[in-house]
Amino acid sequence: MIIVNTDYITGKELETLGLVKGSIVQSKNIGRDIMSSFKTIVGGEIKSYSDMLNEARAIATKRMVEEAESMGADGVVNARYSSSAVMQGAAEVIVYGTAVKFK
User: Fold this and answer.
1) What is the pLDDT of residue 90?
2) Distance between CA atoms of 76 and 15, rounded to whole angstroms?
3) N or C end of the chain, less CB within 10 A?
4) Which bin fits 31, alpha (ψ -120 to 50), beta or left (φ > 0)?
5) pLDDT of residue 55
6) Is 78 exposed, middle or buried (0-12, 13-18, 19+ CB in 10 A)?
7) Of the listed ranges 35-39, 48-52, 63-67, the one predicted with least confidence
8) How many domains does the chain have?
9) What is the residue range of 73's domain?
């Protein structure tokens, strides 16, 4: 599965199949959340949250690919990621794009 953030794939003629997306709401455990709050005092990267969001992006991407595959897609163009906090320590990550089939 080819995933790009452009509206084309070089050298391929594309047939549009439709919108595909994948999402997840993910959180860290309360112990790590408390430890991470101390990091905000001194500054710097909050590694546990970076790890959480990287994992969430991977899961959301996998779900989008599964949806595209179920439509018979060869790729996804115009892929975009978005995230938002849904509560303290939890974030939603969504990825969406247009499923395409090579002609």
Assistant:
1) 83
2) 11
3) C
4) alpha
5) 93
6) middle
7) 35-39
8) 1
9) 2-102
Q: CA-to-CA distance for 65 and 96, rounded, in angstroms? A: 10
- Identity at 81, one-letter amino acid code: Y
Strand partners, 18: 99
H/E/C letters for each residue in 20-79?
Answer: EEEEEEEECCHHHHHHHHHHHHHCCCCHHHHHHHHHHHHHHHHHHHHHHHHCCCCEEEEE
Asked whether the predicted pLDDT for residue 31 surpasses 90, the reply is no
- For residue 75, the cross-strand partners are 2, 100
> Which amino acid is located at 61 in the chain?
T
Q: What average pLDDT score do residues 35-43 get? A: 61
Which among 45, 53, 47 is positioned nearest to 94, based on CA atoms? 53
